[in-house]
Amino acid sequence: MTDDRYLKRTIVKEEVQSSYLNETRNLRVYLPPGYQEWLSYPVVYCQDGEDFFNFGRVATHANQIILDDDIEPFIIVGVEVDKRIRTSEYSPSGERHENYVQFFAHELIPYIEGKYPVRNDADSRILAGDSLGGSVSLHIALRFPSLFKKVISLSGAFYPDSQSIIALQPDLSWLEIWMLVGLQETSFETDHGTFDFVAYNRATRDLFIEKHAKIQYDERDGYHLWGFWQQHIPEALKYFLQ
């Protein structure tokens, strides 16, 4: 049975106006147990924010590792996305991708850092995402290495266009990435075709090694589903936060 302490979560709904996206973007902000405005906290920015909270149980997992595993309290910002335009924003070849990346760096980060006591150094910011969310998290870090150095990728959708961008990087020794892929993700069906995520992640891992990134890579039994990813979220968070 789940400990009731893990379920006592403080989650604040926020809205941030974006001139890059020409819209208001919804956010979910998790505040840790014992939250105090006069303290300062590391922060995890999650793509697919609604899914991370609803299906990934990220707030419950955060409570558990903070209360039981002596992890320093941290804040989570879930950035919600309209699934109808998700690929356009998350894919590096998408029409809205450049605007989304600019929104993240120039509007979202200042908004959060102006309202919450999060630390404003790259070592205290973590980007997290599943599938294309893992890919866009990496691309944001590549564009703004002064802002982000740490990425959590759950079955990242590292298609050839993403791999080409990584291959062009002269040196990634500044980057630290935690990667997970399920061994049963060899023929995942999408609206754009059927893809082998295991092969994509292995190839991307090799690129990271070639470019001297610090990488924690793992393959486990699992499918391209939240039921698989949410089991490993505590491990990913503890990797960067302990």
From TrEMBL:
InterPro entries named among the record's database cross-references: AB_hydrolase_fold (IPR029058), Esterase-like (IPR000801), Mycobacterial_A85_antigen (IPR050583)
Pfam families according to UniProt? Esterase
Coiled-coil positions are: none
Q: What is the protein name given in its UniProt record?
A: Enterochelin esterase
| Organism (species) | Paenibacillus selenitireducens
